[in-house]
Design goal:
The complex is a heterodimer. By secondary structure, chain A is an alpha/beta fold. Chain A is 34% helix and 27% strand. Chain A has 8 helices and 12 strands. Chain A has a 6-stranded mixed sheet with strand order 8-9-10-3-11-12, sandwiched between helices. In chain A, strands 2-1-4-5 form a 4-stranded antiparallel sheet, covered by helices on one side. Chain A is globular and about 50 Å long. Chain B is mostly helical. A two-stranded antiparallel sheet of chain B has the order 1-2. Chain B has a two-stranded antiparallel ribbon with strand order 3-4. In chain B, helix 5 crosses helix 8 and helix 8 packs across helix 10. The two termini of chain B are 32 Å apart. Classes of the chains: A alpha/beta, B mainly alpha. At the A-B interface, helix 2, strand 8, helix 3 and helix 5 of A face helix 9 and helix 10 of B.
Chain lengths: 255, 310
């Protein structure tokens, strides 16, 4: 059996007394796409941010390709790693944000080659070549020299996806990738993401697009108030087929 | 849809007691308000300016020939160079140390934050002139400086007066005090960079140091340049205080000349002219930097709208 790309083990995160994420576990096999659904305030975003330590979990562990994130295992002890080592561990996990978060002072191509050149030490010429092929892949080869403010929301998000892919991540995390987009741009971003899934990219996406979750993802996770209520194959995402009452009432509202 | 007819009925109770109940809008004309007040203000301003120019040109006490005689004299040129050197070194110290202090203030470490607070408090509390004289007389306060362990043995010891020349006192005074102010500007600029920028960089596996260097500081610089340029201009004029510790800067060198020749006013005019020239050049540099830092198309609003149509 293959090693899961991601294994979250009883991950918890609280803000003050409030438990945003409460002992959530999740295993994702290579090539699988998982969608996390749930009402706002369910802890979905906090959980996905815990998966690359943008939020440091208060409890529990995250394993990427079997290796603990943020720690080094020595026998029965998990020693916290330095910031530098954590940065290296994070290279295997790409992330796409709701607000795109492109570097505002860099062109689309510069955004993409920044981490490969600066972090991996890829020669600039090779990084540019690869960056251009990634831009072509997301349909924006003609926007290489455009700055983020010159691009529409959908175009910015596609550049952000290309930027994450430039690091050749083993896992792509998407935190509400289409929530900040105008309706007519949602499709272009979802199309890029579903291509990635069909090419075998392992992905976890927090999304409100139930259609996308059903058609593109393999599995869904339904969260509410920091805990997982239900997990299942995405083909079960309909009011008739889900098992839990709360999942059903959520789906009834959003479908 | 057809164009509406030009005839418009008005209610009979119009305030000016209009004579007709309908108006053909096609035949009306517009009369805009005249801005009489601001026109008069403009004329007054021009008149005052002309009086000032006349007063400067015709006043024999200014002795323009003397001004011309000393404007490029060797003493004045050396003074000018010293003023520029002190300004440049001080602002360089201020920006480097200010960036460091700003990062201390933003650090999670309480001790570092406290050190920053004490530093800023101390250097903002002391009048510049007091600090300058203190720095110049530092060797009276501490005759030896040594590097070692606090309350323990020391490894290297210097005689303080060997290196507190008037110039180093000036560099340190202006640099250290300016750093306190500049650190606050840089801190505000760093905080103005959205958190998402740092998070995106972290998610790409960039180290903290690299994020600061490649993502945060370049964007913060854009915010910090106008206030830092403003402070540089202010600093360049404050450096004239070094006359108190006998550093022959621009002001001190003209004082030196007029104490011999008694041509006080024309020599102060020489100094004034050079200070204005420095400030003008600094203003141009600021303007150029702001343009360069803004990137190629900031402010080009049309680029924002047809993004999809391009």
């Amino acid at each position: 059996m293959s090693v899961p790309v991601l294994e979250a083990w009883r991950v918890s995160k609280h803000f003050g007394a409030e438990k945003a994420v409460d002992q959530v576990s999740l295993t994702v096999e290579p090539g699988t796409a998982v969608c996390i659904l749930g009402p706002s305030g369910a802890g979905k975003s906090t959980f996905i941010r815990c998966l690359n330590f943008l939020e440091r979990p208060d409890d529990g562990y995250v394993f990427i390709d079997g290796d603990p994130l943020g720690y080094e295992r020595v026998g029965d002890t998990f020693n916290e790693v330095s910031g530098r080592k954590l940065s290296r561990q994070r290279q295997r996990v790409g992330m796409v944000f709701q607000q795109f978060n492109l570097f505002e002072h860099m062109s689309a191509l510069e955004n993409i080659i920044e981490a490969p050149c600066g972090v991996l030490g890829t020669p600039r010429k090779d990084a540019i070549e690869k960056g251009m092929s990634l831009l072509t892949r997301v349909g924006l080869a003609n926007k290489a020299d455009s700055y983020p403010r010159e691009l529409s929301g959908g175009q910015q998000q596609r550049v952000a996806i290309a930027r994450a892919l430039a690091m050749e991540p083993h896992l792509l995390l998407c935190d509400e990738p289409t929530s900040a987009l105008d309706p007519e741009m949602v499709h272009e971003v979802l199309a890029v993401l579903s291509n990635l899934v069909s090419e075998g990219m392992t992905m976890i996406a927090v999304t409100h697009e139930v259609g996308f979750a059903r058609e593109v993802a393999h599995r869904f996770v339904f969260m509410e108030r920091g805990v997982v209520i239900e997990e299942g194959p995405s083909s079960d995402l309909s009011t008739e087929r889900v098992k839990e009452e709360r999942t059903r009432s959520f789906l009834a509202k959003v479908l | 849809m057809t164009a509406p007819s030009g005839d418009k009925p008005f209610p009979s109770s119009s305030p000016d007691g209009a004579s007709s109940a309908t108006v053909n809008l096609d035949k009306t004309s517009r009369r805009m308000r005249r801005h009489v007040g601001s026109n008069i203000a403009g004329l007054v301003a021009v008149a005052i300016l002309l009086f000032v120019v006349q007063g400067l040109a015709r006043n024999s006490a200014l002795q323009w020939s003397v001004v011309g005689q000393y404007l490029f004299s060797a003493t004045v040129m050396q003074g000018l160079m010293r003023t520029l050197t002190i300004t440049a070194v001080a602002i360089a110290i201020a920006v480097v140390l200010g960036t460091l202090l700003a990062n201390m203030r933003l650090s999670k470490n309480r001790v570092l934050r406290a050190v920053n607070a004490v530093y800023v408090w101390f250097f903002r509390s002391i009048p510049l002139l007091v600090l300058l004289i203190l720095a110049y007389n530092f060797s009276l306060l501490y005759s030896n400086l040594s590097i070692g362990i606090p309350f323990g043995p020391s490894f290297v010891t210097f005689m303080t007066r060997d290196f507190t020349t008037a110039m180093t006192a000036a560099f340190l005074t202006f640099g250290l005090q300016q750093a306190a102010y500049t650190s606050e500007v840089i801190r505000a600029a760093i905080m103005s960079v959205p958190k998402g920028q740092t998070e995106a960089a972290e998610a790409l596996g960039m180290t903290q140091w690299r994020i600061m260097k490649r993502v945060v500081l370049p964007q913060a610089a854009r915010m910090a340049i106008p206030p830092i340029a403003n402070e540089t201009i202010n600093l360049c004029k404050s450096t004239s205080l070094v006359a108190f510790i006998s550093v022959p800067d621009l002001l001190y060198s003209v004082q030196e000349i007029y104490s011999r020749t008694f041509q006080v006013v024309p020599l102060l005019v020489v100094a004034t002219i050079w200070y204005t020239v420095i400030v003008s050049v600094l203003t141009l540099i600021q303007w150029w930097l702001e343009k360069v830092m803004q990137g190629p198309s900031r402010g080009n609003r049309s680029a924002l709208i047809p993004a999809e149509a391009l």
